[in-house]
Amino acid sequence: MFSWDGFDYLEMYVGDARLAAYFYCTAFGFRLVAQAGPETGMQDRRSLLLAQGKTRLLLTSALTPDDAVAEYVKLHGDGLKDIALRTSDAVGAFREAVARGARPVMEPVILEGANGRLIRATVGGMGDVVHSFVQRELPEEDFMPGLYQRVETSPSPVADAFVRVDHLAICLEAGTLNQTIGFYERVFGLHTSHNEDVATERSGMNSKAVQDRSGNICFVMMEPRNRDDSGQISEFLALHRGPGVQHVAFLTEDMAAAIRRLRAQQVEFLETPDAYYDVLEQRVGKLDEDTSVLRSLHILADRDRWGYLLQTFTRPNVSRKTLFFELIQRKQARGFGGANIRALYEAVEREQARS
């Protein structure tokens, strides 16, 4: 039986780790906390670890043209490569996942440090994405002892915008959703918690969410309704050249404050039609927030049987427009804004039409 304790880190392969780090620190409020490269014994790559709240974002770029990172970026552009899962038994998780059909990528390794040790192993996931299993028996500040050096930096003015990763949204090829969901259920011990089908004038999608028992590990997976679809998922698959992570959702405790802070750092968000807010209270009931504030900040709202949530989405963060962020605030809600999926879908299609 698998026992997960949330996402340990997200690793992005990027063209230039230093430029990417400057962007994510300046715009989104991350701070640099550790680094690796030739000076630490990592000869062919440079990796910079950013942190905010409980989120770790690892940015890695190649220093040689034949490195696997360079090959990934050439094919996919900047994108999420490793979605690391924290566990109390990395060796056991690796063996169990491989026994259930996962492709082994890296056998368990032990990194010893002055303050404890870390055990890490890696298996293949969907597309070119991998999942590392991380067992930490050392302080949070010691990322990977012997490989990364700590970096002392000042906090960002928007350092409190995010609490942790809420979920990741993944785009899949048409006809592969059920197979991929089955793989994640079987190999990682997740279960399907939600499903949603959406159709618009231009396109449509099928989606399902898989989670662990605690809800701290969650993937929302989406596929076009057919191979001739011309919508946002098909566009992602064409630009990304295959399946991958379309967006990362960050949990926030104060949506309005987070948006204002990020806007002040020049982060741009998708817009929502005014008509959406004309019937918002009729659709979701009374909210604690003033509708005029939600309208001015383009915040979406949805309600399920447990409570309600607020959410909004940034414009794409990378050159190929294959990655963006979601901000989500949960007021007891456990869903993912099912009624807003159509609104998001149409908002992204408006963005496509603009560009």
Automatic annotation (TrEMBL):
Transmembrane segments: none
Protein's UniProt name: 4-hydroxyphenylpyruvate dioxygenase
Single biological process term from Gene Ontology: L-tyrosine catabolic process
Gene Ontology MF: a single term: metal ion binding
Domain VOC: 6-136, 164-315
Cofactor, how bound (note): Binds 1 Fe cation per subunit.
UniProt family annotation: Belongs to the 4HPPD family.
UniProt keyword list: Dioxygenase, Iron, Metal-binding, Oxidoreductase, Pyruvate, Repeat
Organism: Cystobacter ferrugineus
Residues binding Fe cation, per UniProt: H167, H247, E326
Gene3D superfamilies attached to this UniProt entry: 2,3-Dihydroxybiphenyl 1,2-Dioxygenase, domain 1 (3.10.180.10)
